[in-house]
Amino acid sequence: MFVDSKPNLLLQLDGKLPNLALMRLSAFLKHKGETVEFRRISSPLMLEHGLFDHEWASVYASLIFERTKPVAERLRQIYPDVILGGTGWDRRVRLEDIGVTTLDLDYSLYPKYPHSIGFSQRGCRLRCPFCVVPEKEGRIAEERPIGEIWRGDPHPRNILLLDNDFFGAPGWRSRIEELRAGDFRVCFSQGINARLLNDESAAAVASVRYSDDDFRCRRIYTAWDNRKDERSLLTGLDSLVRHGVKAREILVYMLIGYWPGETHQDRDYRRRKLREFGCLPYPMPYVRTPELVGFQRWVVRRADLCMSWEEYSRARFRPEHVVRPSRAPLFDIFT
Ligand code: SF4
């Protein structure tokens, strides 16, 4: 078998979590006896420096967000044969299409990442119009049990799940049992769908060691994207709290700027309801206009708790521009 002595270059163009596709690709190439060099591109400028220092057998790059496309385009100018993939590039491209057969993950790409990451299921029961998951992942399917996602000793018993609909898979009760029996901490990093929770699934959430994605604090992620879902969302949140989850442990992403005709009042209504409930609203602008990004900053930095939107807007969405009578900026710590 011919093995190219030149290394393969694997590039992660965005995303803060380890990139599962690149980890699989790396494992596959190494199984074939090839060598791999991995780099994270945190700024487009990095493409202009430092990639030309080698001859590569092949160049692969993965991007999650469409906003990273210009970086990928630039990369293609530099390496016309680059193999690009990921949700941000083309949802239809699969690793299997380029011959990758292994499910093994090469964690050596992320030597400082101690946790275990993977999917226990794929797909989602719903089809929200703004979401790529139904097209990308298709119907609900089981993926891996928890014991297969965990890397084993001496790694911490921390499982970061990338599932988009954990409770949509028929085997969820077994996964919960595995998490409990193994005393794992689990991060439902893509969120659980609070609208579809019932007493049984809410109790199941409350019964595991749910965590944020750094495994530093108790956290449940969920979303309220459409004001029309108010009733089912609040019923789900109520259910979580009734079974022992603290409201302040629930972070609720709010899609803003997507629905036609959405007004500031619509956004603010959801924000207020979530604050009243005691959980953490986290607006996510669909388009990054100054007003929407300002709204996000107003809420995420908790400025909404101490100054009105009108005051904040007058300060051009920058709390450090607000000077109160003492003449001291209101928020010294904000940049
Ligand atoms: S519930 Fe979440 S994962 Fe499912 S389609 Fe809607 S946004 Fe996507």
Give the helix/strand layout.
Layout: E1 8-12, H1 20-31, E2 36-40, H2 45-48, E3 59-62, H3 69-78, E4 83-85, E5 116-118, E6 121-122, H4 133-137, E7 141-142, H5 146-149, E8 158-161, H6 172-181, E9 185-188, H7 199-207, E10 209-210, E11 220-223, H8 230-242, E12 250-256, H9 264-277, E13 280-285, H10 290-300, H11 309-314
Parallel strand pairs: 1-2, 1-3, 3-4, 5-8, 8-9, 9-10, 11-12, 12-13
Antiparallel strand pairs: 6-7
The protein binds iron/sulfur cluster.
Descriptive tags:
single chain; 335 residues; alpha/beta; Rossmann fold; pyruvate-formate lyase- activating enzyme; 4-stranded parallel sheet; binds iron/sulfur cluster
Give the total of domains: 2
SS-derived structural category: alpha/beta
Low-confidence stretches: none
Assembly type: single chain
For the sheet with most strands, the description reads: 4 strands, parallel
Strand neighbour order, sheet with most strands: 2-1-3-4
C-alpha end-to-end distance: 56 Å
List the bound ligands: iron/sulfur cluster
